[in-house]
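Could you show me some protein's one-letter sequence and the numbers that encode its backbone in two labelled lines?

___
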Amino acid sequence: MSLRPTVSGDVPTSTATVARAAFPQGNPYLLLRDHLGTIFTDAQFAPLFAHRGQPAECPWRLALATLLQFAENLSDRRAADAVRGRIDWKYLLGLELTDPGFDASVLSEFRGRLVAGGAEEQLLDTLLALCRDLKLLNARGRQRTDSTHVLGAVRFLNRLECVTETLRAALNALATAAPEWLRAEADPAWLERYDRRAGDHEVPQGAAKRRAYAEQIGRDGHQLLTAIMAPGVPIWLRQIPAVELLRQAWVQNFCLMDDVPTTGMEAPLRVRWRTDQEGFPPSLLMVDSPYDPEVHYARKQSTIWIGYKVHLTETCDEGGPHLITHVETTLAPVVDRDALEDIHEALEAEGLLPDTHLADAGYVAADQLVASRKKGVTLLGPAPKDYQWQARSGEGFTVQDFLLDWDREVATCPVGHQSKSWGPDYHQGRTTFKVRFSTRDCRPCPLKTQCTRSGRRLLTLRPREEHDTLEAARQREAQLAFSKEYRQRAGIEGTISAGVGVLHLRRSRYIGLAKTHLQHVLTAAAMNLIRLGAWFAGTPLARTRQSAFTRLMMAPVPA
């Protein structure tokens, strides 16, 4: 389809007259149109459309209708009906009362164009840019971030179900791509084993029988992979995504015995089902669903899920609406602190870096404190604790009790003994320093029981800049001003609660990380629309709810 850009005009007179008569007390959508105009223009979506072809629907209206759809959590069909029949939608979209709207499929096509063109962020960024022009959003203020888990749009499968369904998906893909080849190579017994989805078949009871059942599936999969890799078979069969995923899943879950024949199918394949003792790849690499390879198993405290994780960042300055400034969608196993750098880079690119960034302990680490400070951002949150027994007991000598001479690379203990060695240690991509004291000094020391439980004391230090920054953060956390300022972070939990409870933020509608991220961005932009409508209507910001007992005790005592 091709784009024929249109100039956004005023709201038709008949639509404005009927809308104001229908809403004499005002309406959020009417206020949004009056204050923000059309928000979008056709020109900014031009790269997503071809130069030739059937004329497309007006893109700026599709963008705005998409945000309204997510704001009210409507399906495509119900959103198209709202465009056709609701006066407040027609007013915001600038349509005549007699305008028939568009077919529901246009909305899905428009979202597909956003993903294909890498324009998932465009709707949110355009709205934020307009808010900056209207002085409703200012950079270098306070912002806060938190995350929540997102359930993928696939079933949660155990390991046996996953390999069964992965083989079934590969057979279905081959049946479509190369039916004649598969008919010649398939074992007739596979029809009974893989005609239905995993979970519909009766799985044998008992560990030994389940293991034998799993290894039969493993032999079937290896037999199919051997046939695909055989000489003379078209190479493109190996490049089918479902086949590549099958190969990956079989490497992760099965072991081929050493005496397995490399050619021919005369001897039975000897396959062993991997056990927990043998170990598995990290969760980021493990195949957890053949229908959405980007969903992964994750666990955070008592929450277990398969899917993704979303991080929301919003402003929290007084005197303006609290607007979501950034949305980061990550794979589920990615820890919060690893997403912080990407969040700051995205905010910096949009000119929206905060001066103070409030976050919980999951985002705060020594290296993140240093990196944030280099960008001019004060990362405010609970600093990592010292969990060594000396600090937990409250009676031992901690690192703070040692005098550290970083220039000479010498540490002096509370008794006065100096360290014997100071050297770097590289572990999992991080650099630390191991400072060792002499057993000759430590063993006869009268304070040894307060210092170490081994023959000598060993200190593990971060690089100097990280060490000093972390110590400063811990000291700042002990001050009363910290707790007073950090209270502002709690508001982001209310934002996530609203997104989850009203807009279904925690459940992915689509398959794949890119489409799921688009859903999160559209949800965030829709929440901003709702907040702007309330702001223009003069609705005060909601306050944190308090229990009846708290309100009673904090109320002034009658004279």
